[in-house]
Design goal:
This protein is of the alpha/beta class and 203 residues long. It has eight helices and seven strands. The strands form two sheets. The chain has a four-stranded mixed sheet. It has a three-stranded mixed sheet with strand order 1-6-7, with no helix packed on it. Helix 2 runs antiparallel to helix 3 and helix 7 runs parallel beside helix 8.
């Protein structure tokens, strides 16, 4: 833990609020907040606002898969104590003398920086559940139709076609343009394999 004098962010700071859940908060609250803050965990405080621990997406997902959201499992139920051997990297709480979170210190070791990762928040989680509940989870449905229409409007075209992935999109685009044997296609030298594979697919 870091002395409060090192950083004096107000406790009303939105960045702090996005990182904190009360121990009595429902599992869903912790899941959504840990997704939204981009850190994959939340600090957990007691009723008096004192830091008690943290709950990460791994622990919350495990509780969810066991039906914890149906049985009243709270964020506090899945929290690990702060100061345990495996604390999350990247951000530490700045505490006052009693143990309340005043701010955040992000000067410590940072987590591994991936080349690419999805930006998933509570919005995507809710949309995925909504699509699941609609029973349209592949090939068509309201979300696909909306995406095709809104994408077409965004790029000023009459139609848009959603595909299952970028490889299919590249293949379809080249096939539609009639690219084939004898044509030259230039791709970057540092790229994903699909950039080259799709050229080979069309000959």
């Amino acid at each position: 833990m870091i002395e409060a004098k090192e950083m004096t962010l107000a406790s009303a700071d939105p960045a702090v609020a996005a990182m904190v859940c009360g121990a009595a908060d429902p599992l869903w609250t912790g899941l959504e907040r840990a997704l939204d803050n981009g850190r994959g965990f939340v600090f957990v405080t007691d009723a008096a606002g004192l830091l008690k621990g943290y709950a990460d997406l791994v622990a919350m997902r495990a509780a969810f898969m066991k039906g914890g959201h149906l049985s009243g499992v709270t964020v506090g139920d899945v929290a690990a104590p702060w100061g345990s051997a495996k604390e999350p990297l990247g951000v530490a709480p700045v505490l006052d003398g009693e143990g309340r979170i005043l701010g955040l210190n992000e000067s410590g070791p940072q987590p591994f920086l991936p080349v690419s990762e999805p930006d998933l928040t509570h919005r995507e989680m809710r949309y995925a559940f909504d699509a699941f509940l609609s029973t349209w989870i592949s090939s068509t449905g309201d979300y696909i139709r909306r995406f095709e229409q809104e994408f077409a409007e965004k790029v000023g075209m009459a139609h848009g076609v959603a595909t299952s992935n970028g490889t299919v999109s590249l293949h379809l685009a080249m096939a539609t343009l009639g690219i084939g044997e004898g044509d030259e296609v230039i791709v970057p030298d540092l790229t994903f394999a699909a950039s080259i594979n799709t050229v080979m697919h069309v000959g």
